[in-house]
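Supplementary Methods. Inverse-folding protocol.

Structures were first reduced to a discrete structure-token string of length 275. This string, shown here, constituted the complete conditioning input.
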């Protein structure tokens, strides 16, 4: 485990007159309020090959304890040097409190192999008209594109654009049976106990991996919200991963809270960057 910090402003590359050279080390010091009163000891962060300042994993437990009683993180060039920056910890403290309150005892992870499915030709828009009007509350307007996938010989997955919603594009998902009947698709979730669907956020279908993914963004930058992935096991879609970030403070997806994760033999899927 490792903590890293990226400093983007005021950092030169040591070339040309008046350009400040890159600092190989900085000090991170938790502090209270608008003062520079430290909370705990400062830590040394060293510049890595990726341009981020890294703290040794052995220092993290003490740092996290100090951060919970601090308001800002001071970035210094040395122990007695000037403050280069002040990083607010409001969002981080809320996220840490949420994670601590959501901890549970370890339990075995579900383990299964997803089954790939196949993409079909464009579906018949008329068959989905009634469900689209019911759940999307919008006229088809010339017929949005319907995507079809064969899950099994007598079952298909249907998707079609539904409506924009804030930072999310809603997609209506349905399943088709051999008798031609369409039903709305609602899938399991840990965070949302009533399930997700039939309108999914920024839906990603990966038939070659046997997975579908819902990515609900709380704000446009995509640094907070919920991401879920389900895999087709031959009979139904099973939740294999769910990550959650309730506080918008610029966290990358690798830092989101892991609510659920499947065993190692499930499909890893193709990771999407924030959009």
């Amino acid at each position: 485990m490792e903590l890293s910090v990226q400093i983007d402003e005021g950092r030169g590359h040591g070339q040309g007159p008046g350009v400040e050279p890159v600092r190989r080390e900085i000090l991170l010091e938790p502090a209270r309020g608008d003062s520079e009163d430290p909370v705990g000891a400062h830590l040394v962060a060293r510049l890595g090959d990726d341009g981020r300042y890294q703290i040794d994993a052995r220092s993290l437990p003490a740092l996290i304890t100090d951060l919970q009683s601090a308001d800002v993180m001071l970035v210094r060039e040395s122990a007695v040097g000037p403050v280069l920056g002040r990083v607010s910890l409001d969002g981080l403290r809320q996220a840490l409190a949420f994670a601590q309150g959501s901890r549970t005892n370890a339990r075995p992870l579900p383990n299964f192999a997803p089954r790939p499915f196949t993409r079909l030709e464009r579906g018949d828009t008329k068959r989905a008209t009634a469900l689209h009007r019911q759940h999307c509350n919008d006229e088809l307007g010339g017929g949005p594109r319907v995507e079809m996938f064969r899950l099994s010989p007598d079952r298909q997955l249907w998707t079609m654009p539904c409506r924009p919603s804030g930072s999310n594009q809603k997609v209506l998902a349905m399943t088709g049976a051999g008798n031609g009947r369409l039903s709305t698709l609602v899938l399991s979730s840990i965070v949302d106990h009533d399930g997700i669907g039939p309108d999914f956020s920024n839906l990603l279908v990966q038939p070659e991996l046997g997975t579908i993914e819902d990515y609900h963004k709380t704000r446009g930058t995509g640094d907070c919200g919920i991401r879920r992935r389900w895999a087709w096991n031959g009979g139904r879609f099973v939740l294999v991963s769910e990550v959650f970030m309730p506080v918008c403070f610029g966290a990358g997806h690798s830092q989101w809270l892991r609510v659920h994760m499947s065993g190692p033999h499930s499909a890893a899927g193709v990771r999407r960057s924030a959009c």
